[in-house]
From TrEMBL:
This is BadF/BadG/BcrA/BcrD ATPase family protein. It holds the Pfam family BcrAD_BadFG. Gene3D superfamilies: 3.30.420.40. Residues 9-303 form the ATPase BadF/BadG/BcrA/BcrD type domain. Signal peptide: none annotated. PANTHER family: N-ACETYL-D-GLUCOSAMINE KINASE. InterPro entries: ATPase_BadF, ATPase_NBD, Euk-type_GlcNAc_Kinase.
């Protein structure tokens, strides 16, 4: 590796997983690493610090680079736009990379998701993974958000919301009919390796990551909805309603983004049935923005923002290079890595 070659690092961090890539100013993606979540609202800050330091050191080792070779770090993490968390991240990364040679940017993980779809800084992104949020950046880089309040205060329309509604439906059915369950109850209990609905309490409340456990039920609810199970269909319908309501609120709140494309990100949007329900609800709400399902994961969106920070303009040739080198890394190095890498979004 040539000495003093400027490299760019992009990081996408959530509550259940974190990914980081390193690449060149020519848009060549050279390596990727992934590790545990880095959301300070899900685990102790010191544990998060150790995790990100370890991850970045692994990344540098993959390309035989040193800290002095890095010109830009663009880190997109859950809660990265909250000043208290931002200050911590800047302090931690400041110890890793010399301020004289490396510019560091900390922002919300929704920024990475947005750019992964638009390859620009502008647009609207709807994230429906473990959590949910609608995030918009207008042409003058004005930022606005709706949702993203976390599972205790919000996350309507998310995987967690769907799983929680499923468990509530089972509890209500059990209160009335006891052990005389239905197909919906039996299917969800089977995923949890349970036979008695009463055991859900122990399973959930004693689980080390109850939020992740509950959100994992969303896939089963979607499968039941695809099979025309009435309870599952209603839960998905309500989830989609909440997401579209977020968008409606955003368009009223920030009319300047009404013609911008909408990027769909997160594990729920990888399900065709969910996407079709969402599109139908948008149509009913007279929302006709162009929809984008990203070809690259959010971590590449973070890397692209790093390029922008270097003053590099996006071109079709640069976009092709990014996509081509990402796919090469993805196919050769990551095996089963999910291309969208967004199942845990968002974790605010």
């Amino acid at each position: 590796m040539p000495l003093n070659r400027p490299y760019i690092i992009g990081v996408d961090g959530g509550g259940t997983g974190t990914r980081a890539v390193i690449g060149t100013q020519k848009g060549e993606v050279l390596a990727i690493v992934e590790g545990a979540g880095t959301n300070m609202k899900s685990k102790p800050p010191d544990e998060v610090r150790q995790q990100i330091v370890q991850l970045l050191e692994q990344l540098l080792q993959k390309v035989s680079a040193t800290k002095n070779d890095i010109s830009t770090v663009f880190l997109c993490v859950a809660g990265g736009d909250r000043q208290v968390d931002k200050d911590r991240w800047e302090r931690w990364l400041g110890f890793l990379f010399p301020a004289s040679t490396c510019q560091i940017t900390i922002t919300n993980d929704a920024v990475a998701a947005l750019t992964s779809g638009t390859f620009t800084k502008q647009g609207v992104v709807v994230i429906a993974g473990t959590g949910s949020i609608v995030y918009a950046i207008a042409k003058k880089l004005q930022v606005s958000r709706v949702g993203g309040w976390g599972y205790l205060l919000g996350d309507e329309g998310s995987g967690y919301y769907i799983g929680q509604e499923a468990l509530r439906a089972i509890a209500q059915h059990y209160d009335v009919f006891g052990m005389n369950g239905d197909v919906f109850t039996a299917t969800i209990l089977n995923q949890l390796s349970l036979t008695n609905p009463a055991d859900i309490i122990t399973q959930v409340y004693e689980h080390p990551q109850p939020r992740v456990l509950i959100a994992s039920l969303a896939r089963t609810v979607l499968r039941l909805a695809e099979q025309q199970n009435a309870k599952a269909e209603n839960i998905i319908k309500q989830a989609v309603h909440h997401l579209v309501q977020f968008i409606q609120t955003m368009l009223i709140k920030e009319p300047q983004v009404k013609n911008l494309p909408i990027v769909l990100c997160g594990g729920l949007f990888e399900n065709l049935y969910f996407v079709q329900c969402f599109q139908m609800k948008l149509k009913q709400a007279s929302i006709h923005n162009r929809l984008i399902q990203p070809e690259v994961p959010p971590v590449i969106g973070a890397f692209i923002n790093g390029l922008f920070n270097e003053g590099i303009q996006m071109t079709e040739a640069l976009q092709r290079t990014i996509k081509k080198t990402w796919m090469s890394i993805h196919e050769n190095s990551m095996g089963g890595f999910d291309h969208n890498g967004t199942n845990d979004k968002t974790d605010d």
